[in-house]
Design goal:
CATH superfamily of the largest domain: Medium-chain alcohol dehydrogenases, catalytic domain
Oligomer: single chain
Low-confidence stretches: none
CATH class of the largest domain: Alpha Beta
Number of domains: 2
Helix content: 25-40%
Bound molecules: nicotinamide-adenine-dinucleotide, zinc ion
Length: 341
Amino acid sequence: MRSVAIKGVKEFEVIEAPEPIADGTSVLVDVKKSGICGSDIHYWDSGQPVGLVMGHEFCGIVTNPGSRTDLKVGDRVTALPISPCGHCPACLTGNPQYCRETWTHASGLSLDHPGAYAPKMMIRPDMVIKVPDTITDEEVAMVEPTAVGLHAIHLADIKVGAKVLVIGAGIIGLVSAMFAKKEGASFVAVSETNEARGRKAVSIGVADEWLNALDPNFMNDVITKTNGGFDVVIECCGNAPAVSSALVSARPGGTVVLAGVSLGAISIPTAVAVTSELTLKGAIAYTREEFQTCIDLIANKQIQVLPFLSKTVGLDEVQASFEELTSGTSDSVKIMIDPLK
Ligand SMILES: NC(=O)c1ccc[n+]([C@@H]2O[C@H](COP(=O)([O-])OP(=O)(O)OC[C@H]3O[C@@H](n4cnc5c(N)ncnc54)[C@H](O)[C@@H]3O)[C@@H](O)[C@H]2O)c1
Ligand SMILES: [Zn+2]
Ligand SMILES: [Zn+2]
């Protein structure tokens, strides 16, 4: 089957990969839609690991339910793309995101579990979740990044009336901004280096204002606008300038949630965190409960995720889509892949 795999630094190739074979346990699906994630961009940027077929945000149709007797051929599903061990203290307390095995065999993030940048995929049965008929394939594929934002916001513990800054208006930033408002923040700003994305955050209504992170006066503006800094800052980029700006924008005693991922070590001014006595929290993935909550919120129309969807492309357009998403000028946010397009 045709699949998109990493070939080298910023380079994909469309390869002919073997189709998954039923093993009596795994759930096999035909992929309907697969989202391109900012984390996928980090792998593409690094060119590693060669041969990786990504795609961990997806909607599929069951073709073989494996050991899941509650599923049948034709059911529409998504899955937590992770591989927790199931028996460590983290797993037993409902926090598979802390499990040491969670990313080892993650779907679309490990060589042994190819992801949804392909027409078919094989999924660990206990991670598969059946979705209601009322949500579209695109919304189903958007559940995973939505859950990342919800988890970050839960950790941020936003008080009613709080002033919140989200750094970066990719999907993680936009979803976090959306949930910050839902939690009762009185002012939500988004900072961006890409003007088109910054403006979009405001036009789709998740942010009250966008701040130009390239403007040399950006930091002074932040402090003036908030009378001393934001109560909560959610960092959704992972690079050194972004994390540094997150620390500087928080008020003394404020909270900074780090959701952005950097694959390597970065240099940041920890003295700011010390002198302002900031609370720094990392946020990774989601709990199973948060993942299910996002399905319910979308199904019950309590949140709208389709405004974040920019377009749907075929496998041959994945390389161009990554180039567009990293251009720094495009207002596209979530680009979805339809492997049969
Ligand atoms: N913690 C988790 O569980 C988790 C899950 C998914 C993604 N991520 C990470 O979250 C980050 C965001 O993901 P995404 O899909 O939204 O990515 P994305 O690449 O679409 O968005 C990042 C945005 O940050 C902007 N940006 C870059 N430098 C900036 C700066 N200095 N100031 C302000 N904005 C800046 C970029 O222009 C871009 O729009 C990535 O690092 C990704 O790996 C984390
Ligand atoms: Zn992702
Ligand atoms: Zn575990």
